[in-house]
């Protein structure tokens, strides 16, 4: 584990140096000077995005199971959670958790204080909770679009609830939901720029800092270009997974947009 | 903190901040509504560009849509906010006018939000345009309608029905995105909550209150969406 972290840190430095070095002869001075900072932010954004999308997905699975459950004690809180996180702006959620809860300070939060005073952790928490609500709704669409006959057939075969979920419902729901899930990952990437308002130095945070020093608008265009590169890489990755998941000669009904 | 102090913080009048928050909410609604109208108009133009048989126009609108879809809304908003000022100054300098004119924040926010909205709306319009069954278009042409008549009488009235669910989603996104204008210090809902929390040192109360008002706005939009969809589907409802 420790080894992995070290290798990753070395990789980040090597990638940043390599790309900045390669771009140096063909890019304007402004970009050359800012390049290491841009890549610093690029990796912060990438790390936040990967962690929050994976953690968010796991929470979403739990939330959607509660949401479609027949027990009201589970489905009502799950519904409320989805409703609140989808119905309020992410910026408000970030500020409630960082400035709002953070204002309670060490005496109010006790052992949680070290967590809530770091913008990065609060950013990760908020992005995770936010995307979990959206992904849960996407998965619910996948689950509820399955033909009911399949579930009845699985029941008739004597499968338990967890067997039905694992063998019948989830493998199909995830394939139906994947395109919409891919959209959500891209939206999450764009939304993650808002963590720069709670002091996190992600790609947007670095872009704003560099801009506030030079007051040159092209800084925003460089930042935008890096976000576009990230979006391109994500789209490619999502397509690869989709191609890997597709079962030949078993085509899914087109999910409505 | 006891309940009494929360109520006095959110009270109306000179002592509380309730009226300031509501004033901010009103600006939020105006901002979203104006951006919606501008964004819809721009979105229709962009959809026209994407469906046009003229290649350069096609390429240009596609590039624009890819740019907006892959760039954070926040970045676009800041780019427009700082960029508009620069453009105005350049034009003034070009005309030889010494001006210190600043683009109003509301206008800058509307420009940014409607540019973002239009890119997504154009995709919805394009989908709706193509969703009208070809058989109907052929039938209309066969009865002797001109291309313009086919568009106005057959295609456009039905596009509304196909576009509505997508546009309603985009409206929700737009409504929530207006909160970004707080960062450029436009006095909308979230900015008012920020001002209030900075002068009272009670950020939790005011950000939660702002969140609750946003929730009311999205809930009302949800009801309106439901009504409109029922109306748009009349005659088609299963």
From TrEMBL, chain A:
UniProt xrefs under Pfam families: BPD_transp_1 (PF00528)
Membrane topology: Multi-pass membrane protein
Localization per Swiss-Prot or TrEMBL: Cell inner membrane; Cell membrane
InterPro entries per the UniProt record, alphabetical: AA_ABC_transptr_permease_3TM, ArtM/GltK/GlnP/TcyL/YhdX-like, MetI-like, MetI-like_sf
Record-annotated ABC transmembrane type-1 domain positions: 42-238
Protein keywords: Cell inner membrane, Cell membrane, Membrane, Transmembrane, Transmembrane helix, Transport
Main location: membrane
Transmembrane segments: 48-68, 80-100, 120-139, 176-199, 219-241
Gene3D superfamilies the record matches: MetI-like
NCBIfam families, sorted: HEQRo_perm_3TM
Family indicated by similarity: Belongs to the binding-protein-dependent transport system permease family. HisMQ subfamily.
The name this protein goes by in its record: ABC transporter permease subunit
Organism: Devosia rhodophyticola
TrEMBL record, chain B:
Principal location: membrane
Stored InterPro entries: AA_ABC_transptr_permease_3TM, ABC_transp_permease_HisMQ, MetI-like, MetI-like_sf
Membrane topology of the entry: Multi-pass membrane protein
Entry keyword annotation includes DNA repair: no
CDD domains named in the record: TM_PBP2
Compartment list: Cell inner membrane; Cell membrane
UniProt keyword terms in alphabetical order: Cell inner membrane, Cell membrane, Membrane, Transmembrane, Transmembrane helix, Transport
Domain ABC transmembrane type-1: 25-225
Domain of life according to the entry: Bacteria
A Pfam family matched in the record: BPD_transp_1
Membrane listed as a keyword: yes
Membrane-spanning ranges: 23-47, 74-97, 103-121, 162-184, 204-224
Family: Belongs to the binding-protein-dependent transport system permease family. HisMQ subfamily.
PANTHER family linked to this entry: ARGININE ABC TRANSPORTER PERMEASE PROTEIN ARTQ (PTHR30133:SF2), CATIONIC AMINO ACID TRANSPORTER, MEMBRANE COMPONENT (PTHR30133)
Protein known as: ABC transporter permease subunit
Organism of derivation: Devosia rhodophyticola
